[in-house]
Amino acid sequence: MAKRKERIKLPETEEGTVLFNVDPIIIKHHYEVDYIHSYAQDSPFFSGLAKKKLMGTRCTKCGYTYATPKVSCMMCGAEAEWIELPLVGRVHTWTTCYFGGQEFLKETPFNLALIEFDGADTLFMSRVIGVKEEDMRVGMKVKAQFLRNLKFKPTDVYFVPFKGDE
């Protein structure tokens, strides 16, 4: 009688893959990576958040002012310099988001607004919290607030209603 050759196998687990669709095959696969990222020329914006300041830029030639900072002026191409923006602005327009990325899933629904500042020619996008959807208004005064434990992300700043006596 011939001796049976033993097969070498990888160990099996009870884990499987969840199949969401057959044609084409769609599965869920967790992926995680750490990487080092530089904010380079945008660093003053994030440094400002750490100091509870909003930093924008102003063109050194034509004076166009950006609430969302730019290194170079998009109007004339000249260099821009860093300036401090006011912490109080107004809602220019807004929408209520019922779906969001992973960062905001726990907050849905949330209000996302474009904020206008006196002296700035562009708008700044951020969340407005502490206001029900039915109470949001174009022109409503809002004030910047900052996370206590910074993550050095644009979401470290958000806005709340401003009463004027704060």
Compile the SSE list and pairings.
Layout: E1 19-21, E2 26-27, H1 43-50, E3 54-59, E4 65-66, E5 80-85, E6 88-97, E7 110-116, E8 124-128, E9 141-146, E10 157-161
Antiparallel strand pairs: 1-2, 3-4, 3-5, 6-7, 6-9, 7-8, 9-10
Write structural notes for this entry.
- The protein is mainly beta and 166 residues long.
- It is 5% helix and 31% strand.
- The chain has one helix and ten strands, in the order E-E-H-E-E-E-E-E-E-E-E.
- Strand 7 (110-116) and strand 8 form a beta hairpin.
Summarize the structure.
With 166 residues, this protein is mainly beta. 5% of the residues lie in helices and 31% in strands.
Low-confidence stretches: none
Task: Report the helical percentage.
Answer: under 10%
- Spatial sequence of strands, sheet with the most strands: 8-7-6-9-10
Tally of discrete structural domains? 1
Query: How many angstroms separate the termini?
Result: 94 Å
Globally, the shape reads elongated
Number of helices: 1
Structural class: mainly beta
| Backbone CA Rg | 25 Å
The biggest sheet, with number of strands, parallel, antiparallel or mixed sense and barrel status, is: 5 strands, antiparallel
Q: What is the N-to-C succession of helices and strands? A: EEHEEEEEEEE
- Number of E-state strands: 10
> What fraction strand?
25-35%
The averaged pLDDT comes out at: 91
Descriptive keywords:
166 residues; mainly beta; five-stranded antiparallel β-sheet; three-stranded antiparallel β-sheet; 1 helix; 5% helix; 31% strand
